[in-house]
Amino acid sequence: QVQLVESGGGLAQAGDSLRLSCAASGRTFSSSAMGWFRQAPGKEREFVASINWSATSTYYSSSVEGRFTISRDNGKNTGYLQMNSLKREDTAVYFCAVRRGLGTSTYQYASSYDYWGQGTQVTVSS
User: Fold this and answer.
1) How far is CA 97 from CA 11, 74, 108, in A?
2) Residue 30 class from Cβ within 10 Å (0-12 exposed, 13-18 middle, 19+ buried)?
3) 46 in the Ramachandran plot: left (φ > 0), alpha (ψ -120 to 50) or beta?
């Protein structure tokens, strides 16, 4: 079992940066793939970024590529999402997720993940 707790959300202005953290409990985090998703009001949850267990492979949605960076520190059981050049359309609740098993690949579908955090709100104003 893995429990995930996101932090780092808040209010930002367009063009600002925020860094989200995802603290994981349990021994399996370091060998698991991790992803970030977001859900805006009235919209479906959408993929943001994914990283494999060794951080040798990452994948981004086209809407954030070049602005966001996903990373992880397996020694600290923590994943990160660095968000730069924020836009109003980045406003959403951001969730981290972990896939059970050895995560050699990245995964863009929510159904691929087994554990989810409660989310952290990011609000970007213009």
Assistant:
1) 22, 15, 11
2) middle
3) beta
**Cα–Cα distance list, 14 to 17, 85, 95, 120, 124 (Å):** 9, 7, 21, 18, 6
Tens-digit pLDDT string for the chain (126 aa): 899 999 999 999 999 999 999 999 987 899 999 999 999 999 999 999 999 999 999 999 999 999 999 999 999 999 999 999 999 999 999 999 999 988 899 999 999 999 999 999 999 998
What is the layout of strands, in order, in the sheet containing 68-73? 3-7, 18-25, 78-83, 68-73
Could you tell me if 79 and 69 are in contact, meaning their C-beta atoms sit under 8 angstroms apart? no
The set of residues, in sequence order, having a beta carbon less than 8 Å from that of 48 and lying 6+ positions away, is 35, 36, 37, 38, 60, 61, 64, 68, 70, 81, 94
Q: What is d(CA 8, CA 34) in angstroms, rounded to the nearest whole number?
A: 17
How many other CB atoms are there within 10 angstroms of residue 17's CB atom? 12
